[in-house]
Amino acid sequence: MKPPIHTVEARVRVRYAETDQMGVVYHANYLVWMEVGRVEYWRAVGLRYRDLERDDGILLAVAEVQCRYRAPAYYDEEVLIRTRVGEVNPRMIRFEYELVNAADGSGIATGWTKHIFCGRDRRPHRLPEKYHAALGIVRKTK
Amino acid sequence: MKPPIHTVEARVRVRYAETDQMGVVYHANYLVWMEVGRVEYWRAVGLRYRDLERDDGILLAVAEVQCRYRAPAYYDEEVLIRTRVGEVNPRMIRFEYELVNAADGSGIATGWTKHIFCGRDRRPHRLPEKYHAALGIVRKTK
Amino acid sequence: MKPPIHTVEARVRVRYAETDQMGVVYHANYLVWMEVGRVEYWRAVGLRYRDLERDDGILLAVAEVQCRYRAPAYYDEEVLIRTRVGEVNPRMIRFEYELVNAADGSGIATGWTKHIFCGRDRRPHRLPEKYHAALGIVRKTK
Amino acid sequence: MKPPIHTVEARVRVRYAETDQMGVVYHANYLVWMEVGRVEYWRAVGLRYRDLERDDGILLAVAEVQCRYRAPAYYDEEVLIRTRVGEVNPRMIRFEYELVNAADGSGIATGWTKHIFCGRDRRPHRLPEKYHAALGIVRKTK
User: Does residue B26 contact residue B19 with C-beta atoms inside 8 Å?
Assistant: First the structure.
């Protein structure tokens, strides 16, 4: 299924805390930035992830992540995170990301994260129908 | 009041993730190590902080921290965290820490953290009496 | 000495990664936010900390930090970081911070960090004179 | 090529700082644990990654990571990290990881990281021959 919005952009500025002694951003932080990207995705389609979790008890448990590193990111640079939904159905959602240097557009990394919709008990739980439209989930008909 | 145990030791090995581009451990991580130290303090007096929180709904909200940095810590070094209780009563506890290089005993940092005992609602809540003895809290008598 | 600019504001949105199982921001992250605040302070006075470090080999080694926690910060909230210089001379600089909830202005934390100007060898080194004016360091005359 | 040592074990105890408001370990921290695992791998084959980097200027730039999450890890639990080399040649090394609960052996996650051997300039650089034996890299002969 195709979500109605294609790509949402978010920006982060590299923090000193995010660098390591190699003089570049420590690789695990890219996963944190992807999370920043997906929060903005929710906001762009009119939802707030915080409310999903707090009000409806829907958690997005991370099931799998993949990241390919192309070029290092450096302290105080601005990084652009482009997020789109690669796949979505009432049981799971897969976000795809492209991280680029905001100044020159050069690629920093690409990756994706797969999430299972869960209830407060952290067990798989179908996404309530009221959220389907915003994510472009349509009922299959004959 | 004086707690029955004086100083408890814990060890951490510096992770690459904890360094920054200055080539040393990023300063905020010392607070994480202090937390490692205080968890071991609880264990040494026969308590498990996890259980305090999970079973009795007691949270230790951080009220104040202070850290003085003496010498940098480097990647892959082992750091010794010496933790003791500086002050404790049914409303609060103050831990004091000394961080030293485990190899040569040289000082890395000193600091303290002050915590308020809270309930699950994160509001101040007196520490239940069953925990007083382990922490050396004694009832004042005339 | 008084710096020419009084208070500089920066904003961060609380990341999921910054929360802990108490449901609030983990306390060590406030130190990371203070760093975000002081980077913006440099920028506001016309300097870029990255360049200080990269071009002139000036490092700001953290010597001491203190933070007092007033109220928790929650996921996805926007936090305003107000940074000002409390004290500065060619050997050290002390930044003071006030963290408030950007939505309602309520206080989250206050704190300060003290830094020693160092050279690439991480030993104390006087701040070059060309930076004095921006920070309001004036030569004492009779 | 097959490295001489098959699997190396390391242990971490889950820190409070590593949890998030879902009450479990934040997913990006698994990458930090994998790094703990591979440092111990180096040590087990008689090398110290710190020395590789410091003395020979060899950096292991992360090129790709993948992690599959099976079950959550909780605060104060001990996690066992099993690390082995999946592939290695003078240009790259791929580590494979299995994270299990140390108490009951149940699976927490599996994953791998691929690294390119680089020089101090962060450009690809063949691993010096003196390290080949420890990693099981053998010269191909007719």
Answer: yes
Find chain B residues with C-beta within 8 A of A28's C-beta: 17
User: Residue D77: closest CA among chain B residues belongs to which residue?
Assistant: B50
Residues composing chain B: 142
Catalytically annotated residues of B: 20
CB B38 within 8 A of CB B95: yes
Provide the β-strand partners of residue A68: A110, D64
| A71 in reach of chain D (CB within 8 A) | no
For residue A24, the 8-state DSSP code is S
Specify the pTM: 0.95
B47 touches chain D (CB under 8 A): no
Helix, strand and coil content of chain B, in percent to the nearest 5, comes to: 25, 40, 40
User: What are phi and psi for residue B53, nearest 5 degrees?
Assistant: -75, -45
The tens digit of pLDDT for each residue in B88-97 reads 999 999 999 9
- C-alpha distances (whole Å) from D70 to each of A115, B105, C64, D23 are 12, 41, 41, 16
C61: nearest Cα among D116, B20, B92: B20
CA B10, CA B65: separation in Å to the nearest integer? 19
Give A64-87 pLDDT, tens digit per residue: 999 999 999 999 999 999 999 999
Spell out which residues of chain C touch residue D21, defining contact as CB-CB under 8 Å: 16, 19-24, 75
| Residue C73, min C-alpha distance to chain B (Å) | 12
| Token pair for C73 | 């910060």
Angle between helices D29-44 and D49-56 (to 10 degrees): 80
Q: Is C20 a catalytic residue?
A: yes
Reduced to 3 states, what is the DSSP secondary structure of residue C131? helix
**Residues in a beta bridge with A92:** A89, A116
* Other Cβ atoms within 10 Å of B78 Cβ, number: 12
Query: Would you call A27 and D65 a contact, using CB atoms and an 8 Å cutoff?
Result: yes
Of D30, B105, D97, give the one whose Cα is nearest residue A63: D30
